[in-house]
Amino acid sequence: METVRNLARRKLRNGLTIGGIVIGVMALTTMGAMSEKTTALLDGGRRFFSDHIVVSDSGNGFGGGLVQVGTAQVIEHVDGVAAAFPTIGVPGHADPSLSLGGGLFVSATAPGFERYEHFQLTVARGRQLDQARRGEVVLGADAAKALNAGLGSVIRLPTPPKDPSTRPDYVGHDFRVVGVLEKTLTAPDSFATVSFADGQMLLSDVLPTAVRGTLDSHSIASGIAVFGQPGVDLDQLARKIAAEVPGVRATPPSELVKAFEDASTLFAAITTGSALLALVVGGLSVVNTMVMAVTERVREIGVKKVVGAHTADILREYLIEATVIGLVGGALGTLLGWLFTSAINAYTDSLNLTLFLLSPRLVVFALVFSILLGAGAGIIPAVRASRLDPVVALRGQ
């Protein structure tokens, strides 16, 4: 109660100090939540690409960014390769303006891919895709929400353009939703997964009209995913594939993983650094407030020491005040950060975009950091107060 009374004596000053911490912690919470979301997304990419080699057109082979399906069989004969699967990836929206916020991405892999893939996806409702059936689709959590589609719904892929005149070559196909995946907070949340045959059909539809009639849709793919035999170094295997199979580029998994890790580290450093800078300003305001409190209460400190207060008692009193300031500022800042990020996520939800991820560890970190900030900023003023000579203190003011 004494701490509350002491803080209430200087309502304006302490309020401004707490306000400074609130702003800093709110910045930490907001920027940290953005970093958490980006890190989760990048971590999903890192985990997805770490277990296989991505093979694409080298520019000197089949051309047009496409690979021949038969190339997968050639790659499987390379020593160290366990399996190779053609993959399809095409935009889910015919209208480019609808691709904001992660958009919609149509994905398809040749049968058998799921047996090798480490990045497993769980169906929340319905069932997994049956490669033997045409016209079926499994949607990611965000894709289902964006399309307002549930089990049994019929959707058109790619989604029609708002203005048909902008895409006179548009071709769409109806698909029935047979499953919705659990939310992963990563890229698959925006995926629409179809059978490989349907994927080839959609890929053929998005090719330029001049090219579309010259290619057999059953022979094309966007790329090839290659899995190595147990114990095989995938980076070395990628170099071997590039050397032995003409017309393809094999990307070592370490390059993709490093790209994701570097992006995650850089973004986290930028966001965290900006937030910590705001917190440092808040910490300096705590130091200033506590120094002023000691200066104004010199006589009070002298009286307390005369009547028997020990150095540890004075030290504890001022540290508790500083810590309470940090706690109150941290709690309010975290609450405002949560309200702000929740409001922005709710606003961008219609764009199929989630900017922030306020995880429990971030909330705990923000609270603990603000408490430590308050306590740390109050150490020097508290030590100064505890060391005051009672005779000198009683002469003061």
Summarize the structure in words:
It is built from 13 helices and twelve strands. The protein has 397 residues and is α+β, with helices and mostly antiparallel strands. The chain folds into two domains: 2-43 and 260-395, no CATH class; 62-245, no CATH class. The strands form two sheets. Strands 1, 3, 4, 5, 6, 7, 8, 9, 11 and 12 form a ten-stranded mixed beta sheet that branches. Helix 2 packs across helix 11, helix 9 runs parallel beside helix 12 (360-386) and helix 11 packs antiparallel against helix 12 (360-386). The protein is elongated and about 95 Å long.
Stretches with pLDDT under 50, minimum 5 residues? none
Helix content: 40-55%
**What fraction of the residues are assigned to beta strands by DSSP?**
15-25%
| Average pLDDT, all residues | 81
Oligomer: single chain
For the termini, the CA-CA separation is 26 Å
**What can be said about the biggest beta sheet?**
10 strands, mixed
Q: What would you call the structural class?
A: alpha+beta
Order of helices and strands: HHEEHEEHEEHEEEHHEEHEHHHHH
Q: How many beta-strand segments?
A: 12
Radius of gyration, CA atoms, in whole angstroms:
30 Å
Shape: elongated
How many individual domains?
Answer: 2
Number of helices: 13
Outline of the structure:
This protein has 13 helices and twelve strands.
Descriptive key words:
single chain, 397 residues, alpha+beta, 2 domains, ten-stranded mixed sheet, two-stranded antiparallel sheet, 13 helices, 15% strand, elongated
Question: How are the secondary structure elements laid out?
Answer:
Elements: H1 2-9, H2 11-49, E1 53-57, E2 67-68, H3 71-76, E3 81-91, E4 105-109, H4 113-116, E5 123-126, E6 136-139, H5 141-147, E7 154-157, E8 173-181, E9 191-194, H6 196-205, H7 209-212, E10 220-221, E11 223-228, H8 234-244, E12 248-251, H9 253-296, H10 298-306, H11 311-348, H12 360-386, H13 390-395
Parallel strand pairs: 4-9, 6-8
Antiparallel strand pairs: 1-11, 1-12, 2-10, 3-4, 3-11, 5-8, 6-9, 7-8
Helix pairs in contact: 1-11, 2-9, 2-11, 2-12, 9-12, 11-12
